[in-house]
Amino acid sequence: MANGVREVGGALPQPAPGGAENQGVSDAPAGGFVQLLTPDGERVDSVTTADGTTYTVDFTDDEYRELYRDLVTVRRLDAEATALQRQGELGIWASLLGQEAAQVGSGRALRAQDMAFPTYREHGVLYTRGIDPIMPFGLFRGVDQGGWDPNEFKFNTYTIVIGAQTLHATGYAMGITMDGKTGNADGEAVIAYFGDGATSQGDVNEAFVWSGVFNAPIVFFCQNNQYAISEPLERQTRIPLYRRALGYGFPGVRIDGNDVLASYAVTRAALDQARNGQGPTLIEAYTYRMGAHTSSDDPTRYRIASEVESWKAKDPIARMKAFLTKQQLADDTFFGEIDEAAKKLALDLRERVLAMPDPQPVTLFDNVYPHGSPEIAAQKAEFERYHATFEGSAH
Amino acid sequence: MSETITLGKALNHGLRRALEDDSKVIIMGEDVGKLGGVFRITDGLQKDFGEDRVIDTPLAESGIVGTAVGLAIRGYRPVCEIQFDGFVFPAFNQIVAQVAKMFYRSLGNVRLPIVIRIPFGGGIGAVEHHSESPEALFAHIPGLKVVSCSNPADAYTMIRQAIRSDDPIVFFEPKRRYWEKGEVELDAPLAGAFPLHSARVARPGTDATILAYGPMVRTSLDAATAAAEDGRNLEVIDLRSLSPLDMDTVYASVRRTGRAVVVHEAPGNLGLGAELAARITEECFYSLEAPVLRVTGYDVPYPAARVEEDYLPDLDRVLDAVDRSFGW
Which domain holds residue A386? Predict the structure, then answer.
């Protein structure tokens, strides 16, 4: 870290503008990361980390092409959501722009029996689980609070309070162990998503402690997109985030978060270790939030254009496209078809979002308690009585 | 089989029964295993049910409740022990922002049958953070239910009912009454018991209604005994459920007596007494002979042990309030 030396006798260390680590010529941060596909689309056969683990992927041509389709599709759907927000059809949107490879790679690494605990930005992971992409739009349009069944989709509800879901994921993973569902290749595992800002939360650190001491089958997948709204990474940590894992007693691996192959390879290996009973892993996916924190944010106030430009050169989709082209796995016809299919999905999504009905006002009293409450029943009855007094009037 | 046991032992029996009845019930907390909890409420349970079902956790309250959420999503029924009232606040976010809201957020898809046990209240000569009464903070939160037991028989029934309920429940235990004894029917089936969220007329009376819960029920009953010597026949209601409140029982009593005094250890400002007074005034206005009065802790941080008896409501302060009520 640039701020590893404490300044004497004065102010707190200040983050370098734009994030000091990103100013170098290399696309890898100091300390390196696992990268299997370079920004130029060159395939790296395998990477062996300091602990002796070797990471690689063995995809068929079709699988490479499908990963590309995923990346393009989740970006296109995300762009549609951003447009819907700008047109006043969503209250807010948290864009995943720039983080497609981290999400698609890790999401595709999940096996059917694995459980994911997202933040509120994991639309790409949701898509890879085979879930209808409209599912989180109830939340962002304001017609519900994100009401789906986590156990049906193996995908927990979006969690907005930063880091809280890492403890839920840890508890769920403890339950897997208690159910005797670890210790072999068919075992279950959990993935918990969070960001660089969340690593400062007490809950995330407690989740690390708990999963460590209970040897929980969990992968902590940190998308380090360099900013917690406006605050750069240097305000959250003075060591690389993946190295935090050492203090909790489990492995930490940093990957090129814009490389879908690295994201897949490392997550798959970590999940399989977890399901085999070898405990947690922290993965730091080193990436960049190309857009705003949410549609309510203005990133020009806290980061410089050249930094954004430098990350454009590391784009996760462009490098996959370059790879497919160089390897002659795809041509312009293929790319055109993918774009067209993604556009069709996006327009379908748009139509269905616009058709989402507003909830009936009286439903605001529903689902407060599984067993109900006489107090809420009374308030609901009073609400209905009051509204009935307007019947037939102009209100 | 009826036995005379302490309130603490009644809770211990209730937890044991719950563990026996449902293999999904687990107990988690600090020192709940080998030690049996600092108040020994979980004494012997880890030995009999194993370390997977009676879990000594890391020393992190948010972790206790946060992992309980995940375990509940997985199908477990966690019973979390918070060691002392004043230690619940690191878990406050998980309780208020997650436990209370998950059923609502998920449109009824996720039930969190979690019980959060909290020994509460003062009178044990403890240091700071060991004698507080934060129940109103939880009763204020939609999505949580809040109860408090006052005697061994109720404790035995209520803890099992709370664990069996699919609602998330904050269960306040009157720590200074842990050692008080009473008769408990250990074999009585839960099916025939009173509803969990119902109040109990602890002492029938005609002249004024005393509303109390947890540790103050004993104090109020003692006050009623003393008042009887002065010819005043006080009715004492043990609320048992703080959210929701069983107001039908309260209204019926106040309509008969015309006077109500609320007693609790927690500070008066915005406490349960304020809510009870407001509702009684709204519903029983023409039956009231006097304003609803409150006997509570003062609006100060819980004081040092040497002066806690001056802070806590006691028999004399209850009788003083009754006198004031009759002065109208």
Answer: 360-395
Residues of B in contact with A157 (CB under 8 A): 102, 105-106, 110
Q: What is the ipTM of this complex?
A: 0.96
Q: Which domains, and CATH codes, for chain B?
A: 2-192 (3.40.50.970), 200-326 (3.40.50.920)
Is A367 in contact with B107 (Cβ distance < 8 A)?
Answer: yes
Question: Same domain, yes or no, for A221 and A131?
Answer: yes
- d(CA A120, CA B137) in angstroms, rounded, equals 28
Chain-centre distance for alpha carbon A346: 20
Is residue B316 classed exposed, middle or buried when 0-12, 13-18 and 19+ CB atoms within 10 A define those classes?
exposed
Cα dist from B222 to A382, B125, B215, B294, B318, whole Å: 40, 21, 12, 17, 10
- Active-site annotation holder among A123, A289, A303, A319: A289
pLDDT in tens, A76-99: 999 999 999 999 999 999 999 999
Specify burial of residue A243 (Cβ count, 10 A radius: 0-12, 13-18, 19+): middle
CA distances from A216 to A278, A358, A368, B57, B203 (A): 8, 41, 31, 13, 51
- Alpha carbons B195 and B248: distance in angstroms, whole number: 14
Q: Which of residues 209-268 of B touch A (CB under 8 A)?
A: 243-245
| Alpha-carbon distances, residue B220 vs A48, A265, B3, B244 (angstroms) | 72, 67, 25, 22
Low-confidence ranges of chain A (pLDDT < 50): 1-25
* Average pLDDT value for residue range B262-288: 98
**Residue A241 DSSP label:** G
* Rg (alpha carbons) of chain B, rounded to whole number: 19
Looking at residue B39, its pLDDT comes to 97
Residue B250: its pLDDT value, please? Answer: 98
Does residue B167 have a pLDDT over 80? yes
